[in-house]
Amino acid sequence: MIEIERALNRIVYLTGRVRQHDRLMAMAGVSLDRAAVALLRQISDSEPMRLGELAARLAVEASHVTRQVQQLQKGGYVTRVPDPDDRRAQRIQLTAAGQEAIDRIRMASCQGMQVALDRWSPEDLRQLSSLFHRMVDDFLSTDIDVAIEGEDASSRPG
After folding, report:
1. Nearest-angstrom CA–CA distance, 137 and 101
2. Could you tell me which residues come within 8 angstroms of residue 95 by beta carbon, excluding any fewer than 6 positions away?
3. Cα separations (Å) of 139 from 54, 68, 133, 135?
4. Helices H / strands E in the chain, number of each
5. How far apart are CA 104 and CA 98, in angstroms?
6. Coil, strand, or helix at residue 90?
């Protein structure tokens, strides 16, 4: 587990570096900050959703998402649409410009990965992708706080 945790921290560090982000934005020809890109990626990967759901999926406060969505809306990347389940609520969806921006970002990101992983076999790449998705799904389906609290309680003397 320690080696997995170390590897994850290295990945987070690598992808979170400002220089890396700036290089990716230059390659994509897009000028967005990291928070905006994370939000666009989340919206792109799902159906239009409410601000609260976006905040929960990104594990940030709703006020952060609200400010970011306002900026993205001003930039023409997202729009608000009526929630079909509740006429009083709105959902956020990508505009054509937002979809184009995220497509360009993903293309640039994939080009960088292709160069870095050029010597990997197609089977290794499929396995890596499958394991990453499985890991994220398991993290999302597990209440880690409850599991850790339960472990702490069971290790305490009765």
Report:
1. 26
2. 76, 77, 78, 79
3. 17, 26, 10, 6
4. 8, 2
5. 10
6. strand
Which residues does 72 contact at the CB level (< 8 Å), separation at least 6? 36, 39, 40, 78, 98
Helix or strand run (H / E) with residue 94: strand 86-94
DSSP 107-154: HHHHHHHHHHTTTS-HHHHHHHHHHHHHHHHHHHHS-HHHHHHHHHHH
Please compute, for residue 154, the number of CA atoms within 13 A of its CA located in the half-sphere on the CB side: 6
Q: Is the pTM of this model over 0.90?
A: no
The amino acid at 123: E
Tens-place pLDDT, residues 80-104:
999 888 888 899 999 999 999 999 9
First vs last C-alpha separation in the chain = 28
Contact (CB, 8 A) for 20 and 14: yes
C-alpha angle 28/30/34, rounded to 5°?
A: 100
Q: Which residues are paired to 80 by β-bridges?
A: 92
